Amino acid sequence: MLNIVLVEPEIPNNTGNIGRLCVGTESRLHLIHPFGFKITDANLKRSGLDYWVHLDWHQYQNVAEWMTEIKDKSRVFLMSSHATKSIYETNFKDGDWLVFGKESVGLSQEFLAQFDNHITIPMSNLIRSYNIANSVAFVVGEAKRQIRVKD
Hints:
151 residues; 5 helices; globular
């Protein structure tokens, strides 16, 4: 099972879509406060449809609380448009932590400094980034592909 981490998510529709993706890919969703919405938000539920009840998810009041869950920091992968290593150059394993920052600014420099594995999704120079729900789908798809090939 992959662990998908959203640090301070801001947009309920994105989180709902990612939750739905997690149900479909049998991944676990981890949400780190503060959120830009309430978990009861209608947009979150609309995007997650009726799948939210099947979602394996956890929420944390802050990064420090979430970090107590990490057994092996080498298996934590931070997504950054500034990273030089591609998701296609990364060897994913079952149980990995895939971490995504808030929609408006990504992960802070302070957060990035706590881990060594910074990776990016290759993209055209014509855009700054992908939508977070699309980014999660890209990375989860590649990680699942690799894990299935190894089995």
